[in-house]
Every structure is written in C-alpha cells, then in structure tokens.
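User: I'm putting together notes for a lab meeting next week and I want to include a structural view of one of the chains we've been expressing. I don't have a solved structure, so I'd like a prediction I can at least talk through. The sequence is below, exactly as it appears in our construct file.
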Amino acid sequence: MLIIIFLKKITLLKILNFFKITISYIISVIANKPITWGMPYSISVEPTNFCNLKCKECPSGLKLLTRQTGYMNTTDFINIANQTYKYLLNMFIYFQGEPFLNKDIFEMIKYANSKNIFVTTSTNGHFLSPENCYNLIKSGLDKIIISIDGTTQNVYQTYRVGGRLQKVIDGVKNLSDTKKRLKTIKPYIVIQFLVTSYNESQISDMQKLCKSLKVNKLELKTIQVYDFINNANLIPLQKKYSRYILKNGKYLMRKQLNNRCQRLWNATAITWEGDVLPCCFDKNADHIFGNLRTNNLKDIINSEAANKFKSTILTHRRKIKICNNCTS
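Assistant: Thanks for the context. Below is the predicted structure for the 328-residue chain, given as structure tokens.
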C-alpha cells in the first residue's frame, strides 16, 4: 500500500537527483573531500518547537532548547516547498515539538501535497479529534507516525510525561474510522513504540493493540539518551532494543562512528525560523548553514559553512557533538 502511494509521486527528475546525490556522496568519501551534486531528497520542516508533553529525553517538551521557540508561517513553508518539490522523495513536516500545535498544519500539508510531495508527519497523538482527522485526510497526508510507548497508563507515562494513553488510542480510532468512512488508504498509519526498560515487556501487547486499532504498521524504536545520570534507567535490558553498551561504567554507542554520513548529503532539517541545519540531531541549531528567508537552499547546501561541516564529518566526525548519539 505505502509503495503505491510513494510511486505515484515519483518523477524522472527526482530519480536523477537521487542518483546525483548518491554518487556525489560516494565520491566525497573516496576523495575525502565534500562534493555535492543535486539537492537533498529528504527534508524535515519544523512547524513549531513547542510541545504539550514533557517527555524525559525531549529538549523541546522539557524547555531545554537553547534557541527561540515559535511557529513557522505559511509564507516560509510555501517558500521551502517551492524550492524543493522537484527533487523531494519525502518531506517530514516535523522536527522538534508537536506539529499539530501549529494552526496552519493542514494548509502546509495541503500545499505540499499539491506540489506532488510525499508528506509524512509525526505526532504524540493528543490532537486526533474527529474534526482534525477529517481535515488531515482531506489535506492529502501520505503517512503519519503516532507515538504510543506503552499499553497501560502507568507504563506509558514513565516516558510520555503529561500524556494520556486513552486519548491517544481514541485518536488512532478516530483516524482509522475516518479513513474507512471516506474510503481512502491515506494516510498510512504507523505506531511508533519507543522501547524502554519500562515497556519492553509490553511489546507483544502493543502488537495486539495495533492489530485491534487497524493500523498499517508497528515500528519499534531505540531510545536516545542524553542524560545518563538521571535517565540511564530508561535503557532496555534486551540488547537488541538498545543503542548503548555499558563499558567500564560508561555508556557508549554500540555502533561504531565512522568518518562518513550519507544523511548529510541526502537530507537536511529546517527550523521554524528557516534556518537550514545538517540533520535532525542538531536540535539546538548549533550548526546553521544559512537561512531560507535570505538565501536559496541550493546555495546554502553548497555554502562555506556546509562544506566545512561536511569536511569535518569526513575526517574527524567524533569532534562533532551531535554525531556522538547518532545511529547513522
């Protein structure tokens, strides 16, 4: 089902751009020098960095972001879509924060859909009222990721602080029922289950819940931890669900960090203010390549700042703080 939705939005130019970016990345790794041909084929756009929850490892909800908070306006969003639609294989309309707190979210999705962009959004699921679900489907959204990290309220709230599990479940039902009523296969519904030590015993229960909710897919995701002093207890006991290992009393990434990262060529993240960042791990916008209110994306991804960052990735990636918690 998802592949059919996706293929309908593929064009020859998008395919050619995909190969240009991929080839330039391979050459960059071999030459140990940044070369960028083409445009990012995946971008994350931030409708807002406000959030209604206080999830334990989320700098947005905990109000720990060092940058300003605010909402993207439709003018900036249209500018982004107009510059990228010819090349994009996917647009994620989320970054930090809860997308549905932006009152213009449905207009943003609708405009991106009108430009033949495959659109995905991600939500904590607290705003899926019948009316919002109707507007969401009518906007043309292709895929939605809904976070549910437990099958009981007491387990769910160990991470989603301030969240109400039943409200999220009711929201998923609203979306599934509205899809059925409107006789549409979109959006493709994914339930994201962030595996922690508290909920890893509920994985089978979550599989049953997803089946009863008639969602399209359940994705199990490893938790990202910044504060090991206070939140190391969140790390699951089952190794296959953890991105960390404990060595000499210190938590380390299980995956080796190599001097390369294809994501830096394939994708980019854009804040609500229009700042272009290397990726979604740059939550505080510490590495701004440029701003789309004053420059175009093509110039920004080939700017001195972008090339300098890519050079460091290819030579001394461990020196970049945001990379040290990355699974890529």
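A couple of points you could mention at the meeting. Residues 64 and 246 are 26 Å apart (CA to CA). Residues 12-31 form the longest helix (20 residues).

User: Perfect, that's what I needed.
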